[in-house]
Amino acid sequence: MGGKGIKDLYGKAHLLAVITIIYNLVEGVASMGLGAADETLALFGFGVDSFIEVISAVGVWHMLGRIRINGEEERDRFEQTALRITGGAFYILTAGLIASAVINMVQHHKPETTLWGIVISSVSISFMWLLIRQKMKVGKALSSPAILADAACSRACLYLSLVLMAASVGYELTGIGSLDAIGALIIAYLSWKEGKEAFGKAAGLACSCSCSCHD
């Protein structure tokens, strides 16, 4: 592959990182606002998770810009700091979701509706599926572990969307309030895993984000 082809692929990867940041910001605002309005913990927690993903995506965006210049994939101090902040934020989210879910279950709390959870998770599943395909395509073409790891992290977001979808649909079909809390607990578990992996990557461990980056 010629130099121009490689440059174009890195340019595409950089654009995909920007799209990821913008999408997560919009998704975070919508999910937190609607989750608070409808009193659905799973949707609210999903929104907070989206904001945390923005921090990680900014680190990826910075890294891709640096790789385009010098070709070095080792993380610099900025990216390591972003990963540590991401990991800490995920741990805080995990604790908050667990505490809130337990309180909601004890109080037999029910959301006003989870219809917005169904809508947002449907959009997220479709968008993340397309994003993952594009990131994997670029990552394989460049044989870039960094870009493939980013694709794996987007796949973790897809799993979160599937959890939100299941919890939201389950509540609408059954009216069982605890399903929203259970969905929040599963999101908390996945957030804890993402936090652990963020700290691991900051320490220089192999990428995973709940998935192999070589799939």
UniProtKB/TrEMBL annotation:
<dbReference type="GO" id="GO:0008324">
    <property type="term" value="F:monoatomic cation transmembrane transporter activity"/>
</dbReference>
<dbReference type="InterPro" id="IPR058533">
    <property type="entry name" value="Cation_efflux_TM"/>
</dbReference>
<keyword id="KW-0967">Endosome</keyword>
<comment type="similarity">
    <text>Belongs to the TMEM163 family.</text>
</comment>
<keyword id="KW-0862">Zinc</keyword>
<dbReference type="GO" id="GO:0016020">
    <property type="term" value="C:membrane"/>
</dbReference>
<dbReference type="InterPro" id="IPR027469">
    <property type="entry name" value="Cation_efflux_TMD_sf"/>
</dbReference>
<dbReference type="Pfam" id="PF01545">
    <property type="entry name" value="Cation_efflux"/>
</dbReference>
<dbReference type="GO" id="GO:0031410">
    <property type="term" value="C:cytoplasmic vesicle"/>
</dbReference>
<keyword id="KW-0812">Transmembrane</keyword>
<feature type="domain" description="Cation efflux protein transmembrane">
    <location>
        <begin position="24"/>
        <end position="194"/>
    </location>
</feature>
<dbReference type="InterPro" id="IPR026765">
    <property type="entry name" value="Tmem163"/>
</dbReference>
<protein>
    <submittedName>
        <fullName>Membrane protein, putative</fullName>
    </submittedName>
</protein>
<keyword id="KW-0472">Membrane</keyword>
<keyword id="KW-1133">Transmembrane helix</keyword>
<keyword id="KW-0770">Synapse</keyword>
<keyword id="KW-0968">Cytoplasmic vesicle</keyword>
